[in-house]
Amino acid sequence: MFRIGRPIRRPKRLTFPLMVKSLTQEASIGISQASVVDSDEKLRERVAFIHDSIGTAAIVEQYIEGRELYVGILGNQALQALPVWELFFKNMPEGAKRIATDRVKWNSKYQERHGIKTVGAELEPAEVERIHNLCKRAYRALGLTGYARIDLRLDDAGRMWVLEANPNPQIAKGEDFAASAEKAGMTYEALMQRIINLGLRWQPESVA
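RESULT FIELD:
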């Protein structure tokens, strides 16, 4: 993590390529193709951009090449993992990184031009089980309740990398979370009622 006003020095354990993004902003704010850096000079430039243009600290992490997957989770104690969703990049320019930039997420013309869409992932049942188990572990480890979405990448070697846990994902009708729930046999109305019920049943942990 690189805070505003502090020197920008890369720890030796962080090897290139690296991903630079805002520590606190959501919805891919501040993420572009320039967010993936391959030198200390580019790292300093991008961290400075986050500090100056976004106004937050920057987080820098290893860039993982692979399939981008999303898993919706429902529950407080007993958890239900929804079908795995995948972000597809069909016609990206040569050399472009397949990452969820601001334009990838919110620019419909850009999505159409480059064949970007999210649909149910085609995976073997054993892979789905491994992914679901990992996402549930992340959900529990972070003390999440109600609902959340775990974002991860599956690399060519079959290793899974958790990118982030989103405790407040988009749940509008037709969006990824709701579409995944529908694939699991849950109507949008039933999904909303389920989330409401989970909220009503939630109780804060007692302090010893």
